[in-house]
Amino acid sequence: MFDKNRVLLGIAPIAWTNDDMPELGGENTFEQCVSEMALAGFTGSEVGNKYPKDTKALKKALDLRGICIASAWFSSFLTTKPFEETAAPFLKHRDFLYEMGAKVIVVAEQGHSIQGMIDTPVFDRKPHFTAAEWESLARGLEKLGKLAQEKDMNIVYHHHMGTGVQTATEIDKLMEMTDPKLVYLLFDTGHLVFSGENPQQVLAKYAKRIKHVHLKDIRQDILVKVTSEKMSFLQAVKAGVFTVPGDGMIDYEPLFAELANNNYEGWFVVEAEQDPALANPLEYAIKAREYIREKTNL
């Protein structure tokens, strides 16, 4: 189905230690995290807050375990701050990832975002951009795309719950407003289903523009609870709305088939943030790895 030399498997450290809620997995070390990633059979990782900032130290620790860096999250504020206030930290982030050998940079607009607000209902208070903000976002992302390409890298935009680019309609608008050679898409199964969208429709429309994939599943019973109890995004995570592929409501077979038919190249990154005290990270990493092997032969 997939070429093993062109589709690589990674997992995010967010299952071990949560950057937005440090109390989740606070006891888990960087060394335990990357060792268990390797033990579960993954060869890539995104970057968490416990990872060494020094590239030589990080490379040494990862090389010992056969792990490399796939990408890392970057928060842009293109709708609320001058471009320069996003560009400066972006360049530092770009150069770090370049030294680590990554080819894509995950970008998510955090202007007006409520994803980190523990008491703000994720559905009721979702932000919406003005026409001027959409323009600032689109032009700013294109500039970041050009900066990335100076290092032969690309940006991939992460649609995300609690932000101004969450729904299929908003993804359409962003894709229409931006140059397809400068702004690519990160396809996140869990965030689309959480938002009430059909991931297969989004994938079919933008398959050629997708350069990074996050695999996370959704527990349907928890999703119902999130809506009825007006939970925030972080409350939903704590309640267990996300899980690994094959453990929730998402049918991955047609998604894998669509990606394969479009000759997808890049990373599949399992990114299913849960409370590690309730969902043992190694156990769930192994579960995800076995499911991906079963469905894709990777």
UniProtKB/TrEMBL annotation:
| Molecular functions (GO terms) | myo-inosose-2 dehydratase activity
- One Pfam entry name: AP_endonuc_2
Question: Does the keyword Manganese belong to this entry?
Answer: yes
Q: In which pathway does it act?
A: Polyol metabolism; myo-inositol degradation into acetyl-CoA; acetyl-CoA from myo-inositol: step 2/7
Residues in the signal sequence: none
Question: Where do the Xylose isomerase-like TIM barrel domain residues begin and end?
Answer: 38-294
Which InterPro entries does this UniProt record tie to the protein? IolE, IolE/MocC, IolE/XylAMocC-like, Xyl_isomerase-like_sf, Xyl_isomerase-like_TIM-brl
Catalytic activities? scyllo-inosose = 3D-3,5/4-trihydroxycyclohexane-1,2-dione + H2O
**What EC designation does it have?**
4.2.1.44
Cofactors per UniProt? Co(2+); Mn(2+); glutathione
- List UniProt keywords, sorted A-Z: Cobalt, Lyase, Manganese
Q: Extract the Gene3D superfamilies matched here.
A: Divalent-metal-dependent TIM barrel enzymes
Which NCBIfam families does the annotation name?
Answer: myo_inos_iolE
Family, similarity comment: Belongs to the IolE/MocC family.
Protein name in UniProt: Inosose dehydratase
